[in-house]
Amino acid sequence: MQTILCKIFKSIMLHAYLFINFRMKDNTTNQQFEKNFVPRRWQDIFINAGKQALKVSWMLLKIYIPVSLFTAFLERIGFLAFIAPFFEPLMKLLGLPGEAALVLIAAYVNNLFAALAAASVIDLTFRQITIIAIVTGFAHNLFVETGVLMKLKMGRAGIAFTRIIFGLLVGFIMNLIMPENIRGAILNPYAAAGDFSWIDLLLKVSITGLQIIALMFVIMLIYELLILWKHSAKIKEKLTVFTRMFDMSPAALAPWMVGTFIGIAYGAGILFRLNKDRRLNHKDVCLLTVSMCLVHAVIEDTMIFVLVGANLWWLLGVRVLLMIVILSIISRGKIYRKLTWLGLPKEESTPIPEK
After folding, report:
1. Element housing 40 (H / E)
2. Where are any strands of DSSP class E within 151-214?
3. Exposed, middle or buried by CB within 10 Å (0-12, 13-18, 19+), for 90?
4. Per-residue pLDDT of the chain (355 residues; tens, 9 = 90+)
């Protein structure tokens, strides 16, 4: 069975390799693929990815499961119905029920998995889940992520409030322009259960927990494969278009990749090392901070809400488009220097570039 799975996986990766290197001659493609990509022990890839996936999943599930059960308890005793009227005016501007305020608060003080747990108890439409995903995507885990940015001298405390206000503003605009009938796909048969029962809730939480583990495994597997692939340097070279587009130094590429694909919190260790080894100028730091606040951990943050019905194209498209537009504007001239009141670092607090 293991041999068959390895062959299937090898075939998939070979086709991906063919797609990326479509100009390579057919009679040498397979040999080049074996030489440049295939490791000696396939088991090591899956073992390493599995270990990392379980480690990260355990940290996430320790938040997701208790918050899910606690939110369900609050809903059953009437607490959500009690607080809903207080937040209803604000939530109405976002096209959300008053109870959704708890989801936003959970995201602000914790991470998106806490928000997902709170949202799973409330009856929401695909459109409302997508709006929540967009709003919380801009502002979540604020204590940890703001602390990391401050430690890196890439932001100040005010950046947390800027993220909250910006997320709410975008949510308001999305409520105005987003079609009413957008669709998603709930990949959990118990998510749309009718009458409440603790058994259905436990089944829903368990299935979503397994989906989280599977998602983490896929993400970690991709990371493992990129590390092994000798041609990954070519991908990095292609991505330098990002730094050139916004007039950033080449040294900004590595921290941008870490923040965008791994995230601020989980990529903190790597970001600390890069900040120490490759000093960035003030413009690099400001634009990186804005970029990471708009889009970070892009695969994980997107997919966890897609699992419960958020529309992939609206969720991903809005965040990426806003990142490109905003960075294009503030990178012109010295506009970024005038935005330090938003929580961006002041010039004197940033590291001095190495000569």
Report:
1. none
2. none
3. middle
4. 444 445 444 444 444 444 444 444 444 544 554 455 555 566 777 887 788 778 777 876 777 788 778 877 877 788 777 877 888 999 999 999 998 998 999 889 888 888 888 887 788 899 999 999 999 999 998 887 888 888 888 889 999 999 999 999 999 999 999 998 888 766 555 455 456 677 777 877 787 778 778 877 877 777 677 666 655 566 667 777 888 889 888 888 888 887 888 788 666 656 776 666 556 788 988 999 999 999 988 888 888 888 888 899 999 999 999 999 999 999 988 899 999 899 998 886 555 444 3
Partners of 186 in beta bridges? 308
Amino acid residing at 266: Y
Q: Which of 351, 198, 188 is nearest to 275 (CA)?
A: 351
Q: Which ranges of 229-281 would DSSP assign to H, the alpha helix? A: 232-238, 240-245, 253-261, 268-277
Tokens of 60: 């996430």
φ, ψ of residue 193 in degrees (nearest 5): -60, 150
* Closest to 317 in 3D by CA, of 141, 137, 186: 137
Q: Give pTM, 2 decimals.
A: 0.73
